[in-house]
């Protein structure tokens, strides 16, 4: 597989005018607003990189553009002609030339507040959302809307809040003011306080179809061969964000090397393995090692599903490999191999082990299992 450069940058969620694959969710949100009975808090969950934040900003734009006075009141700074609602088939679309769209992209809309991880005193990005990030939202919600309509808060991502931040957010959920809308983007709802989950209307987005991911990639990596695009889409498991990250990290090349080594089972090409393991070590090998680790885990997981009879869409190279080595072990034995390999790969970070040796040991574990 050849490496492909992205033709253009993937837009940030607040600047992304397009959303594919979640039309039902869009219609659900628009119907709730149009009915005049919009719940004050929504928990938008699902896998990373599938468009949850994009949907949140898309809904925020729509509400701030067409939802004045909770629906049908004063249009604020702009005329009704400027703010003509999207047609019924356009979901939550707001044109990029719309003034509301432009001000949200610029971070200058007075009725939208975004809560996300911020930098600490040393200028480094925090690993969690802290209580001070949430406290500023309390005054925001109780101020009069600058344009006479809704005040909207987007939390991206809610499962990154620490305990104090979560408790501060809970207070807002318990006593929401009129025409206040809280949109919680969440990758892992299980990490949220049960009391937060119970006070939100839940909207789960599913992983995108392979064809949808391929279609999106055709926009950002138009020179990618169709077969490679389908492989990347399958590797990303329905996440356009993961697909583009994989391309950026050189994952196509790494995947090709991993599959070539596995194709040698039950006897792996030792010189080729040492060359690949060397590329994962040293000061510059970190990104290659991370990509290899995820791809090895991912391939083993798909092999296990295949052996167990689970429905898995396979590339041609995978199908041939899995049919050849899959019957060598039972599902339980393959699960044991996955556990051992996962432990080895994780130990590189947790125990600061040499990455080259970790890769050698991981492939050795798979080779010994198949040969036995």
Write up this protein:
The chain has 372 residues and is α/β, with parallel strands linked by helices. The chain folds into two domains: 22-204, 3-Layer(aba) Sandwich (Rossmann fold), CATH 3.40.50; 249-371. Helix content is 50%, strand content 7%. It has a five-stranded parallel beta sheet with strand order 2-3-4-1-5, sandwiched between helices. Helix 10 (251-262) crosses helix 12 (286-307) and helix 14 (331-350) runs antiparallel to helix 15. The longest helix is centred in the last third of the chain and has 22 residues, at 286-307. The protein is elongated.
Keywords:
single chain, Rossmann fold, alpha/beta, 15 helices, 372 residues, elongated, 2 domains
What is this structure, in a nutshell?
The chain has helices at residues 23-34, 52-66, 99-105, 131-141, 163-174, 194-198, 210-220, 226-236, 240-248, 251-262, 270-280, 286-307, 316-325, 331-350, 355-371; strands at 41-45, 112-115, 151-156, 180-186, 201-204.
Number of strands: 5
Tally of structural domains: 2
- Cα gyration radius (Å): 24 Å
**CATH superfamily assignment of the largest domain?**
P-loop containing nucleotide triphosphate hydrolases
Termini, distance in Å?
32 Å
Helix content: 40-55%
Strand neighbour order, sheet with most strands: 2-3-4-1-5
Quickly count the helices: 15
Named CATH topology of the largest domain = Rossmann fold
């Amino acid at each position: 597989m050849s490496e492909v450069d992205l033709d253009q940058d993937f837009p940030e969620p607040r600047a992304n005018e397009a959303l594919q694959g979640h039309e039902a969710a869009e219609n659900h949100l628009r119907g709730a607003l149009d009915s005049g009975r919009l719940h004050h808090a929504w928990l938008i969950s699902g896998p990373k990189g599938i468009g949850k934040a994009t949907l949140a900003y898309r809904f925020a734009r729509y509400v701030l553009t067409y939802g004045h006075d909770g629906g049908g009141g004063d249009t604020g700074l702009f005329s009704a002609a400027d703010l003509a609602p999207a047609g019924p088939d356009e979901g939550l679309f707001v044109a990029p030339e719309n003034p509301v769209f432009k001000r949200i992209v610029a971070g200058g809309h007075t009725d939208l507040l975004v809560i996300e991880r911020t930098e600490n005193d040393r200028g480094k990005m925090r690993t969690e959302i802290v209580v001070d990030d949430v406290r500023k939202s309390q005054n925001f919600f109780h101020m009069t809307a600058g344009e006479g309509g809704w005040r909207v808060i987007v939390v991206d991502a809610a499962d990154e809040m620490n305990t104090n931040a979560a408790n501060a957010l809970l207070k807002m959920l318990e006593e929401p003011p009129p025409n206040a809308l809280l949109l919680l983007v969440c990758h892992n709802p299980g990490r949220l306080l049960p009391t937060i989950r119970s006070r939100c209307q839940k909207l789960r987005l599913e992983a995108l179809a392979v064809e949808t991911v391929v279609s999106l990639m055709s926009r950002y990596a138009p020179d990618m061969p169709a077969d490679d695009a389908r492989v990347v889409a399958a590797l990303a498991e329905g996440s356009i964000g993961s697909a583009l990250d994989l391309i950026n990290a050189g994952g196509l090349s790494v995947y090709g090397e991993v599959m070539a080594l596995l194709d040698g089972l039950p006897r792996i090409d030792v010189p080729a393995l040492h060359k690949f393991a060397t590329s994962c070590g040293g000061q510059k090998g970190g990104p290659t090692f991370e990509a290899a680790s995820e791809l090895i885990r991912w391939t083993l997981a798909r092999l296990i599903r295949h052996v167990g009879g689970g429905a898995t869409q396979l590339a041609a190279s995978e199908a041939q490999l899995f049919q050849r080595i899959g019957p060598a072990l039972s599902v339980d034995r393959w699960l044991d191999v996955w556990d051992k390999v996962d432990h080895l790969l994780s130990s590189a970070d947790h125990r600061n082990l040499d990455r080259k040796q970790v890769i050698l040991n991981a492939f050795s574990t798979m080779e010994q299992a198949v040969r036995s």
